[in-house]
Request: fold
Amino acid sequence: MRNFLKLMKSEGIKIQHTTLFWIHLILPLVGAAIFLWYYSFASWDSMNKIQAYLQIVSCIWPFLCGVICSISEEIEADSGYQNFFCLSRRKFQAFLSKWCFLMLIGLFSCLIAIVGFALIYGLFPGGKVYTLVVYLEEAAVIWSGQSIVYLIHLVLAFTFGKGVSIGIGILGTLSAFLMLTGMGDGIWMFFPWSWSGRICSYLLLYIAGKNRGAEINPIIIYELGICLVVFLILTTAAFLWFWRFEGRRAQSE
Reply:
């Protein structure tokens, strides 16, 4: 455990003077500010505004994952993958710590984007639609839904490089928006990029109907079960891949 915490600290030191830090701080602030400015004069219903904002945050995140993971891989490549290969006994800890660290700073950004939006939007006329607890629940759902997306893009970035990771991130964002429509019914569970958007929408529907005695549809429980199975399969495959990973640049020479 102590070694793992040291590796997490090492990840933090690596990003101090890189664009990763500013991406996670500035983008959520700018994004929330743009939507708050637009919502200040838009004539939508407040519930629709909030749902649209949460869905857009969910659907754009896969593209950002592609960018973030590609930058993270470049940092490792420039250092010669020291944590992975110079400390062979800690190889899996190094990969796990990178995944967990990216998730941790992703949580930081998610809270800025959603809780920050909630606190300011609550000051708008008719803006107090949901309690802060609901926003925190939505943030947790959106963030946890992206966990496997980070892992997918880490594998893509380490295997194929920046272009592929970002390209798949763009496709992931497009698929996430499509899976929110009727096109995603019955198949969205097999597209991890869409999990956050779908599940956060389900949660809002459940919250809206809870006071009227609404219950969770068994189909949704079945779909979430499929998501769990897909998550376990992809996570296992990612770590099996990493067992054989020897460095992208070394493999391409």
Remarks:
- The chain has eleven helices and no strands.
- Residues 142 and 196 are 5 Å apart (CA to CA).
- The chain has a mean pLDDT of 87.
